[in-house]
From TrEMBL:
Record-given protein name: MFS transporter
Membrane-spanning residues: 46-62, 82-100, 106-126, 147-166, 172-193, 220-242, 248-270, 282-302, 308-332, 371-393
Organism of provenance: Neorhizobium turbinariae
Annotated compartments: Membrane
Phylogenetic classification of the source organism: Bacteria, Pseudomonadati, Pseudomonadota, Alphaproteobacteria, Hyphomicrobiales
Major location category of this protein: membrane
């Protein structure tokens, strides 16, 4: 298998794509709920934002087809072609979203689902290209590019975007993000164009092989429990801050700072803890920390005893700090359980399980918050996180890992 001769150039290219994907994710799952709430959309409708992640749930269905097209039996590597068309489709979709009124949530959701399909397809090609093109000794740097790119993209999509909405307009903010997505994808095209042609290939990815493995099925179960416990409150934090009187520009700065500074620091700290302790203690600690923070949010809503500044600190610690800390360990589990012969397919299955649970949890979260209020919702979410601890303690593995972590979002964390 041919390797790219200059790993630094390759890393710059794939980092740009990871940032671009996370910009889209940050706009969709972090910024959009807050913008919709300010536009007067009800919480139960805002909870439906999670449905936009549907292509990220289902991308395992077309991942083998993407890989077979990207690496044909005979011919050159087509990663650049996939990125060109997927990237342009994503940018055009974001431009179209900018024309729509955020209160017109059905049309907006339809456009963003198309964007999510294009971005998730690019993600399949990007991950496969990185693993194929980098020598094994550089794989850790590729994972660092994923982590850094994800948090930087989230800071832009969840922070800068909201700031632009608050200080200018929804349209200008959306069109700025579309231009950024195009620019971030350009370095990868130069890298992909330099890959030597391979004339013949033999391996064909198989979903059936993945699903037959008991270890992978157990990993999917553990992922489902952890994701719903840690992420169920994520989509309601933005609307909660809006209802608490925090303006969109301030929320944008808060999200950007949290993703870029707190999230990155928590990810590095989480990686060090995984290396020292193994994944199980880190997963359990993340659940306990999340339960504690959500309990404080519930108390703040019920008693109104905490000032807004303290609520903002608690919210960002939950949505960026604990989330990054915990998901480093979860993705270390994913890497550990992936079959090296078809790691792309296995890893995609784990990512899709993450997205599927996030969708269901987000929809249910919106319904509960709308009917019962934030106080009961955050109390229930805290109880769920604490109740997941014994299950994770039972199904999670204990092995420690070298400091090599990965992140989606895509979807935000």
């Amino acid at each position: 298998m041919t390797k790219v001769q200059k790993p630094g150039t390759l890393l710059a290219g794939i980092t740009g794509l990871y940032i671009a994907q996370s910009v889209i994710g940050g706009v969709t799952w972090t910024s959009l709920p807050a913008v919709m709430r300010e536009a007067g959309v009800s919480l139960d409708r805002i909870g439906l934002v999670s449905l936009i992640a549907l292509p990220w749930v289902l991308k395992f269905l077309w991942a083998p087809m993407v890989e077979r097209y990207r690496l044909p039996r005979n011919g050159g590597n087509r990663s650049g072609t996939i990125v060109i068309f997927g990237g342009l489709a994503s940018a055009v979709g974001v431009i179209a979203a900018g024309v729509l009124d955020p209160a017109n949530w059905m049309s907006l959701f339809a456009v963003l689902v198309v964007v999510a399909f294009a971005a998730s397809t690019v993600d399949i090609a990007c991950d496969g290209f990185a693993v194929q093109s980098l020598a094994q000794k550089h794989h850790g740097w590729a994972n660092a590019a994923q982590v850094g790119g994800a948090y930087l993209g989230s800071a832009v999509g969840g922070g800068l975007f909201l700031y632009l909405v608050g200080t200018s307009s929804w349209q200008i903010a959306a069109w700025s993000m579309a231009a950024l997505v195009v620019l971030l994808g350009l370095p990868f095209l130069f890298v992909a164009a330099r890959v030597p042609t391979e004339q013949s290939r033999e391996h064909v990815p198989s979903l059936l092989h993945s699903l037959r493995r008991p270890a992978l099925r157990q990993g999917l179960f553990a992922a489902a429990i952890f994701v719903v416990a840690l992420k169920v409150s994520l989509g309601m934090i933005g609307p909660f801050l809006v209802d608490a009187g925090v303006d969109l520009a301030t929320i944008g700065i808060l999200n950007g700072t949290g993703s870029l500074v707190i999230g990155s620091a928590a990810a590095i700290f989480g990686g060090a803890c995984v290396r020292a302790w193994g994944t199980k203690p880190v997963l359990i600690l993340a659940l306990i920390l999340q339960a504690s923070l959500l309990s404080l949010l519930a108390v703040s809503r019920i008693t109104e005893a905490l000032p807004v500044s303290v609520i903002m600190i608690i919210a960002i610690a939950s949505s960026s700090g604990v989330m990054a800390f915990g998901f480093v360990a979860l993705y270390a589990q994913f890497m550990r359980l992936s079959d090296s012969r078809q790691a792309g397919v296995d890893f995609t299955l784990f990512q899709c399980a993450d997205a599927a649970v996030s969708i269901v949890g987000g929809v249910i979260a919106g319904q509960i918050a709308e009917v019962l209020g934030y106080g009961i919702f955050f109390s229930a979410a805290a109880a769920l996180a604490l109740g997941a601890v014994p299950f994770i303690a039972k199904v999670a593995t204990q092995e420690s890992y070298s400091l090599s972590v990965s992140d989606d979002a895509h979807v935000a964390p």
